[in-house]
Specification:
By secondary structure, the chain is mainly alpha-helical. The chain has one domain: Cytochrome c-like domain (Cytochrome Bc1 Complex, Chain D, domain 2, Orthogonal Bundle), CATH 1.10.760.10. It has helices spanning about 1-5, 10-15, 30-40, 50-65, 75-80, 100-105, 120-130, 145-155, and strands at about 85, 90, 110-115, 120, 165. The protein is globular. The structure holds heme C (HEC).
């Protein structure tokens, strides 16, 4: 997004308006994220976490993951920290287990979602889970989404990347 704004002349509003595709319109951003993600195929996740700001985001993500909030008093951990949980027939990954986080992050997203007829990014997955918690809309590339992705991505280090994934 920074390069698109600083070098290519897009506005932040344009990018955010077209961030998710719909039935009659694809999203360039979803296509771009899938293309760039696939360029790492075969490599291992390797988030360095050397810069103080990276660590700050990671810690914020860890906090948010475990912090209950909203009218239902859910945290991410409510649905994603135990073995054998499911909603209807959907198994919920236990993301306190590094092996399961590796699968979700390095082979999961961006994903072709059968239920949505298009490719979706992690930003969309987080937006959806946030909605399931009945929290206010998760802003695209917002501080909160960057914090959660930093937390999950770092904990997926070592996973072999194979993208895009396929999901329900
Ligand atoms: C009410 C339960 C619930 C809560 C709370 C919840 N999620 Fe989810 N999450 C789901 C469901 C359901 C799925 C989809 C599973 C499927 O369709 O296979 C999912 C999927 C995911 C996935 C993709 C997993 C995969 O295998 O590809 C990620 C990543 C994720 N959630 C992150 C989060 C984060 C981060 C939070 C907190 C902001 C959160 N979730 C809160 C229910 C929840």
């Amino acid at each position: 997004m920074t390069c698109m704004i600083d070098l290519q002349g897009f506005t932040r509003e344009d990018i955010i308006r077209d961030r998710f595709g719909s039935l009659d319109k694809d999203s360039d951003m979803e296509a771009l994220v899938s293309f760039i993600g696939s360029k790492s195929n075969g490599m291992r996740m390797n988030v360095p976490m050397r810069h103080a700001k990276e660590y700050e985001r990671y810690k914020a993500g860890e906090y948010i993951f475990h912090r209950r909030a909203g009218p239902l008093d859910f945290s991410c951990a409510t649905c994603h920290s135990e073995e054998g949980k499911r909603i209807r027939l959907q198994e919920l990954p236990n993301m306190t287990d590094p092996k399961q986080v590796q699968i979700v992050i390095s082979t999961g997203w961006p994903a072709y979602r059968g239920t949505q007829a298009t490719v979706r990014t992690m930003q969309h997955r987080l937006y959806d889970c946030n909605w399931q918690m009945r929290l206010p809309d998760l802003g695209y590339a917002s501080d909160m989404s960057v914090a959660l992705t930093s937390y999950l991505n770092y904990r997926a280090n070592g996973g072999v990347i194979q993208l895009p994934g396929v999901r329900r």
